[in-house]
C-alpha cells in the first residue's frame, strides 16, 4: 500500500515527509534537509538505531489523518524534553 508520505529518521525521532525521495532510493539519504509533516525542517539520519527512535507525535497524528487511521490512545512517543 502506497502512502502520500515517507517515514524518515531525523533529529532523534521518526518523522514523516511528503518531500520526494531522490531516485532511485526508497528512503532519504543521510544529512538531507526535508520538510516534516510536523512543520519542522529536519536533517535525515540512517542506520538501524535511527529507525528505533520514538515517533514524532505530530507526524504520527498527521499521517493517521491522511490515511484515515484512528488516533493513538497512548502517549504517541516520548517528547525530547521528557527523556
Write the SSE topology.
Layout (H helix, E strand, L loop, with lengths): L5 E5 L2 E5 L15 E3 L5 E3 L13 H11 L16
Rg value: 12 Å
Total helical elements: 1
Mean of residue pLDDT values = 89
Termini Cα gap: 34 Å
Number of domains: 1
Helix content: 10-25%
What is the structural class?
alpha+beta
Keywords: Metal-binding, Zinc, Zinc-finger
Region (Disordered): 1-26, 62-83
Biased composition (Basic and acidic residues): 71-83
Pfam families: zf-HC3
3D structure, described in words:
- The structure is a single chain.
- The chain is globular.
- The strands form 2 sheets. A two-stranded antiparallel ribbon has the order 1-2. The protein has a two-stranded antiparallel sheet with strand order 3-4.
- It is of the alpha+beta class.
- The protein has one helix spanning 57-67; strands spanning 6-10, 13-17, 33-35, 41-43.
Main features:
Zinc-finger, 1 helix, 13% helix, two-stranded antiparallel ribbon, 4 strands, single chain, zinc-finger, two-stranded antiparallel sheet
Brief summary:
By secondary structure, this protein is of the alpha+beta class. The protein has one helix at 57-67, and strands at residues 6-10, 13-17, 33-35, 41-43. The protein is 13% helix and 19% strand.
